[in-house]
Amino acid sequence: MTAPRITHVAAGILLRPDGTFLLGSRPAGKPYAGYWEFPGGKLEAGETGLDALKRELHEEMGITVTAATPWLVQTFTYPHATVRLQFFRVTGWDGEPQPHEGQSFAWQTPGALNVSPILPANGPILRGLALPPVLALSQADTLGIDEWLARLDRRLAQPAGQGGLRWLVLREPQLAAADYRALATEVLARARLRDCRVLLHGDIELARELNADGVQLPARIAASLDRRPRGLDWLGVSAHNADELAVARRIGADYALLGHVAETVSHPGQTALGWNGFAALTDAGWPFPIYAIGGMGDDDVTTAQVHGGHGVAQLSMAWSKA
């Protein structure tokens, strides 16, 4: 059987500082006319994805891209074509978008779209945009449960965008099962009052039982699965290499943690990936956001994004100023 011919496309997610992003409608005369999508177009011979993105956004809407970083790669088969879409996060541009091809534009908020229908290939992209640039992991082990819960409360009480915590992975491998269950129950009760999503670590059945928002799986547990666990809204996978990222893709993970990127006290004697190693792995093109983990501070978010990541995951740094 002959493999389908793949059309390579670059697409831009224009992001404003408030987190809203731009969708455009497909003009009349094109397949899926009237559907909403992220603007972009086909790569021409010899073009890189970024070159094509800059050209297409200038032709389609008259803007000049000044800041863009690679993000996700999505391959999708439509009745008329198989496309490989390379998505870029566009955070800087000159000019205001103008409908040069008769399309319409609409600024949207993650999780609260007011336009439809959406082009099918963009579904996973919209889901990824709901993820924060900084993902916090709990630290009750070193801080003590009472002290960590106090810091958790302070972060939950802060407004979103001003240090307020809205995503948390409860990772406490040192706790006995009964103690972890008790802590998870307490954390979920507090987080729900502040609209914070909580993912449990490693325990799929407990996440289902307590109605957690999802689960973060170590690489060894993820590798033992043949499909995405049912009944969970969000699924994250920890990875250290391309094989483990491939497992995350196979079981339909929503995101992956990749590291460790920098030297950390928790990984003595283990060689860090470094940013070049991180970029070499993200450059393969994955259909989900990837967080850099291991010694990451707030200042590393931009560096992670430049190297193909979505942002950073933090352990101690998440609670150092709480």
UniProtKB/TrEMBL annotation:
Swiss-Prot/TrEMBL keywords:
DNA damage, DNA repair, DNA replication, Hydrolase, Magnesium, Metal-binding, Mutator protein
> What cofactor is needed?
Mg(2+)
Top-level taxon of the source organism: Bacteria
Q: Which reaction does it catalyse?
A: 8-oxo-GTP + H2O = 8-oxo-GMP + diphosphate + H(+); 8-oxo-dGTP + H2O = 8-oxo-dGMP + diphosphate + H(+)
Q: Which residues form the Nudix hydrolase domain?
A: 4-133
State any single GO MF term: hydrolase activity
Whether Mitochondrion counts among this entry's keywords is no
- Gene3D superfamilies tied to this protein: Aldolase class I (3.20.20.70), Nucleoside Triphosphate Pyrophosphohydrolase (3.90.79.10)
A Pfam family: NUDIX
Its Enzyme Commission number(s) read 3.6.1.55
| Family to which the UniProt record says this protein belongs | Belongs to the Nudix hydrolase family.
Q: What is this protein called?
A: 8-oxo-dGTP diphosphatase
Say which species the protein is native to: Jeongeupia naejangsanensis
